[in-house]
Amino acid sequence: MEPNQLHGLLKGDFKRIGHIDIDNLYYRILTTLDWYTILSIVPADQLEDLLSDAVLNRIRFSDLKEKFLYARQIILQ
């Protein structure tokens, strides 16, 4: 998968690329990148979608999930 395709998926140009949709991309972003890198990649208007229940419920590690639940609480204030 090409980086420009992933960028297009993140921007909303595509609904799906192969087997990856936006929720899968968000999940991969959350489970592989540090928070500051995430903030530099994901536009601010998409943070609520990034931290949605549909994405966070897929995270198996409770400590990582708690971290993002806390971030969502702060962002949505």
Structural write-up:
The structure is a single chain. The chain is mainly α and 77 residues long. It has one domain. It has helices at 3-11, 22-32, 35-41, 47-50, 53-56, 62-75, and strands at 16-17, 20-21. The radius of gyration is 12 Å and the shape is globular. The mean pLDDT is 94.
SSE layout:
Layout: H1 3-11, E1 16-17, E2 20-21, H2 22-32, H3 35-41, H4 47-50, H5 53-56, H6 62-75
Morphology: globular
Strand content: 5-15%
Number of alpha- plus pi-helical segments:
6
Number of strands: 2
Order of helix and strand elements from N to C terminus:
HEEHHHHH
Distance between the termini: 36 Å
Task: Give the helix/strand class.
Answer: mainly alpha
Give unreliable regions as ranges.
Answer: none
Radius of gyration: 12 Å
Residues in helices, as a percent range = 55-70%
Integer average pLDDT: 94
Major sheet, described briefly?
2 strands, antiparallel
Count of discrete structural domains: 1
Strand order of the largest sheet: 1-2
Summarize, please.
64% of the residues lie in helices and 5% in strands.
Search tags:
77 residues; mainly alpha; two-stranded antiparallel sheet
